[in-house]
Design a protein that fits this description.
seven-stranded mixed sheet; four-stranded antiparallel sheet; 11 strands; mainly beta
Length: about 120
Amino acid sequence: QVQLVESGGGLVRPGGSLRLSCAAAGLTFSINAMAWYRQAPGKQRELVAVSYTGGTTNYAEAVKGRVTIARGDASTPVYLEMNNLQPEDTAVYYCNANIWRAGGLYDYWGQGTQVTVSS
């Protein structure tokens, strides 16, 4: 059973920074990618950043230059460093693990951590 738990969210003023962490348990399978998604009120969940095992990273246009995704160890496999945060970054941020299992790719999700950017 794969479990992901996000932390590091909170209230920050515009221009501020946050570092999100994703703790994992049961992540014994081969990881294809770790990613961060976000969902703002009334909007669909969207990809923020993805880090593929092997080194490739991709970022949403809206966060390029302000956000860095970094891989960690087995217990905390991914982080998200966010700088110069703006009110439009307000959302629930979700950790995602895309894993090879039984010959196929499966997605696992955390419960999310709230990020609120407001003065």
